[in-house]
Design brief:
Layout (H helix, E strand, L loop, with lengths): L10 E5 L2 H18 L1 H8 L10 H38 L6 E6 L4 E6 L3 E2 H26 L2 H13 L1 H9 L8 E4 L5 E5 L2
């Protein structure tokens, strides 16, 4: 277990503005689709659409499906943050009492935060866990089994992990044993420079 290290001035901000995350998300979404949705269509084809006679029942089902999808997304977003917590506990040894959940309604961002330092190696594991569990695994299963809903779910969860992917990319030049901690107010972390 790591304790708070150094004076506040010993920590250097390593953050990304939300606008940059959104910009990268828009650039990366086609790439994510090219590795998930496009192969699914090439392997398994497009689903059959409704006939004109079945359009009204289809629209009713579509509205119900949209409500279910929204509910699943809300639960999945909470699970995403829970997976970050699990990774903090397993890979970084962060005590549960130091972890707090938050929500920035204006930006539509949920997050977990700890002020406890961890190595870059552990922080990378914390960042990558939800994208692997909720994005890569379901997308791969959907592709292998021909289950479109799994492929789409994996794509959506990968898209939801873009902030984590941006941070992974930003941290690329950092050595694995350097200490970092969550930034208290912004998307990113602080690097121990002492």
């Amino acid at each position: 277990m790591m304790k708070e290290t150094g004076a506040p001035e010993a920590w250097r901000d390593f953050t990304v503005p939300l606008e940059e995350v959104m910009d990268r998300a828009m650039r990366w979404l086609p790439l994510m689709a090219a590795f998930t949705l496009l192969p699914h269509v090439l392997l398994w084809g497009l689903p059959d659409g409704p006939s004109w006679g079945a359009l009204l029942p289809f629209l009713r089902e579509a509205i119900l499906l949209l409500a279910i999808v929204l509910l699943v997304y809300i639960v999945s977003a909470a699970l995403h943050e829970g997976l970050h917590v699990l990774a903090m506990l397993l890979f970084a040894g962060v005590p549960v009492r130091t972890i707090r959940f938050g929500l920035r309604l204006r930006e539509g961002v949920a997050f977990v935060h700890t002020s406890r330092p961890m190595t870059v190696r552990a922080y990378r594991a914390v960042l990558v866990t939800p994208g692997l569990v909720q994005g890569v695994v379901p997308a791969a299963l959907g592709l292998a089994l021909g289950e479109g809903w799994l492929t789409i779910y994996g794509f959506v969860m990968l898209a939801s992990a873009v902030g984590d992917l941006v941070m992974l990319r930003l941290m690329h030049p950092l050595a694995p044993d350097i200490l970092v901690r969550d930034h208290p107010d912004e998307l990113g972390c602080q690097v121990f420079a002492g």
